[in-house]
Amino acid sequence: xxxxxxxxxxxxxxxxxxxxxxxxxxxxxxxxxxxxxxxxxxxxxxxxxxxxxxxxxxxxxxxxxxxxxxxxxxxxxxxxxxxxxxxxxxxxxxxxxxxxxxxxxxxxxxxxxxxxxxxxxxxxxxxxxxxxxxxxxxxxxxxxxxxxxxxxxxxxxxxxxxxxxxxxxxxxxxxxxxxxxxxxxxxxxxxxxxxxxxxxxxxxxxxxxxxxxxxxxxxxxxxxxxxxxxxxxxxxxxxxxxxxxxxxxxxxxxxxxxxxxxxxxxxxxxxxxxxxxxxxxxxxxxxxxxxxxxxxxxxxxxxxxxxxxxxxxxxxxxxxxxx
Length: 323
Ligand code: SF4
Ligand code: MG
Hints:
The chain is α/β, with parallel strands linked by helices. Helix content is 32%, strand content 16%.
């Protein structure tokens, strides 16, 4: 089994009451140890919601979340304590996620203290913190400072040290570099990849930026309106995208385009409201290939070989594709 054996949210998988209502439907994937799984899609597609549901910041109303074979989908706060030693999260805005009144050493130590209850082992924590700060490119002088004394990139380094402190197998990273300057983005991504190699970490990496995803992901899941519409190994997804939405996203990406011109699809129209989903295929209101079946029947993710899954009726009726 994998580390995240299966994240499966079905039917009315998830719901937050006003002011935000976000539903996730038929999202199912797994993450192997050491693997970087990216979730991509436009804002509002539910990718952050999936991340926060796996981390159990949100509670699912259905489906399963299996971590090392253990279903945590209905775990309460105390049951989550040992799970947090296996899975940590880093956020888009490190400033908002770090307590402004805590010194860096206390911020980084917090998850570790939560896991270390005996006084004897707690004695080792200050040395651990020093080592962690060094791993992320900070030093012991930084340990006594407060978050506001750091740049955005340094703050993300603090967030990474904090997540790393319990030596998790999985780090869930929700847009971890999208608030940073491009030059700093590369530094943080390189750091994350170095740590992956050193500690055998797996990442669930949430991003709307396809060039970032192309750079770091082993596998990519594409989300639209709360559905996963395609899931494939990175090279497969970028060279042979199959779902019309994936193809449209790639066509719109300046640096990454599908290999054949035929694959180019212009994305037009607005994303429908998640409160009022189209019948049948969630993408049909924007799809150039939609036909009557697409309004009647919701396509499910189907294995099309080479580790690629696609939720589109064109996989059964490819002759329908007339551009
Ligand atoms: Fe387009 Fe139909 Fe495929 Fe949906 S199922 S993506 S509407 S062709
Ligand atoms: Mg988001």
